[in-house]
């Protein structure tokens, strides 16, 4: 985790420490976008840019593709990570959402490093950096019809309709950690208590400390991905960084009516909402944003910056989250170790023969002394 924390810290300070908004700081936003593209290229991820226009401004979703051996077939269980890189007009956006971007890029690097040494993956992995999330989740809405569905049709043909993907891990504001009592706010506490009794008891018994990551998913549609991430988290060390799981008892967002729509709104505040509306499996990982600690003041404000957010605890919390995401994607992509090459096999056989001959000769020498 220490190595992960160092890498995340460098990425955040270098490319996601200032405003990334198309009006107030378009230059730094382009710098961040160019960095994402260059990283995808370096990783060998076949980067693609999906351009869309809103009110005469150009926006770009960025996609990196790591093909599995099943790509183009109905058996390909696609899995991926998605996170937005833009900010509102007047924030530095280190937690929201530099943290998600740094985590995704590090996971992509880890996976592709293994592929470069010969690891093969059965299932295709997608990495998506969403643009224009802060103006109403526009980027993720645009990408489904403008890039994802056409790409699926080109790549899988008629099999695209039969795919059963694991889905996307969506990251948004994931590095806020606070051990202070009562640092965690709970929206609609009575409704939370009745719907998620275990979570409510855990948080209350811990004096409402903001020491956990939220794993949010629809308990049926996204169960496989949600439970895979939970297993990965629990297998890691550093138990002081906790996980609370929210399996939402809903299947279709279009059926949500008041008062339920208001109750579920805090769970729908990022790009996974558009994925769910299109019936794409997804889980949402977050630190709860403006419901916790410093972000209760700094959310969408100037103090979501390097000085406030890049503490040792926050970086280690983000590191555990990143490592759990890597373990989840690595497992679900079904990797296989590279086969031993013929040259290595021959070398190994000759080595065994030499060892055997030397051993026999030594025994005979001892017997006839």
UniProtKB/TrEMBL annotation:
Database matches in Pfam families: Peptidase_M28
InterPro entries for the chain: M28_fam, Peptidase_M28
Record-linked Gene3D superfamilies: Zn peptidases (3.40.630.10)
GO biological process, one term: proteolysis
Domain Peptidase M28: 61-155
Transmembrane intervals: 348-366
UniProt GO MF annotations: metalloexopeptidase activity
Entry keyword set: Membrane, Transmembrane, Transmembrane helix
Cofactor(s) this protein cannot do without: Zn(2+)
UniProt family annotation: Belongs to the peptidase M28 family. M28B subfamily.
Protein name: Peptidase M28 domain-containing protein
